[in-house]
């Protein structure tokens, strides 16, 4: 994980790429009881956080963070990850990789405008429906030559890794520009800037 000082190289994009150091430290020390922390299925809200209060006869009683007490089938509760996994950059690293954990993580990251998240080999992008300052030359330069694990999730990281593999002969790559949508244009733009920075 990069420190706040290391994140300065990303310029204005830094706050949209990785949560601040203070927030990460607070999450490490937040109280958490793995035996009682669950997500529960609640009508009209899908999954909510709650505390398991009773489990018997195939039923589970959970007190939601909103103060409701809900009794559901045991298979309708899902273990939560410790707070240190909130806004996780790579969801494959989560202790509990279940549907509510994935949705919660994406929701929390999106609420902070961190639209890029890894899930193992894949880069998940949630459309912000507004322009964020994560596509400028400063950001391109910050991702250039870095391994995927050395930088926050971004399409530029994926593009640069493909470019580096191509240069080292580990991957044959052909870029063809035709009928390109918005995301593909950004990928191509990154490769174009890296190959010919004077343009």
From TrEMBL:
**Organism, per UniProt?**
Haplochromis burtoni (Burton's mouthbrooder)
Q: May I ask which residue range the UniProt record assigns to the signal sequence?
A: none
Q: Name one Pfam family in it.
A: Myosin_N
- Protein's name according to its UniProt entry: Uncharacterized protein
Keyword annotations from UniProtKB, A to Z: Actin-binding, ATP-binding, Calmodulin-binding, Coiled coil, Motor protein, Myosin, Nucleotide-binding
Where the record annotates domain Myosin N-terminal SH3-like, the positions are: 33-82
Q: Where's the Myosin motor domain? A: 86-199
A Gene Ontology molecular function term for this protein is: ATP binding
| Keyword hit for Cytoplasm | no
Sorted alphabetically, the Gene Ontology cellular component annotations on this record are:
cytoplasm; membrane; myosin complex
Q: Which InterPro entries match?
A: Kinesin_motor_dom_sf (IPR036961), Myosin_head_motor_dom-like (IPR001609), Myosin_S1_N (IPR008989), P-loop_NTPase (IPR027417), SH3_Myosin (IPR004009)
- Protein family per UniProt: Belongs to the TRAFAC class myosin-kinesin ATPase superfamily. Myosin family.
- Gene Ontology BP, a term: actin filament organization
- UniProt xrefs under PROSITE patterns: MYOSIN_MOTOR, SH3_LIKE
Q: Which domain of life is it from?
A: Eukaryota
Indicate whether DNA damage appears among the record's keywords.
no
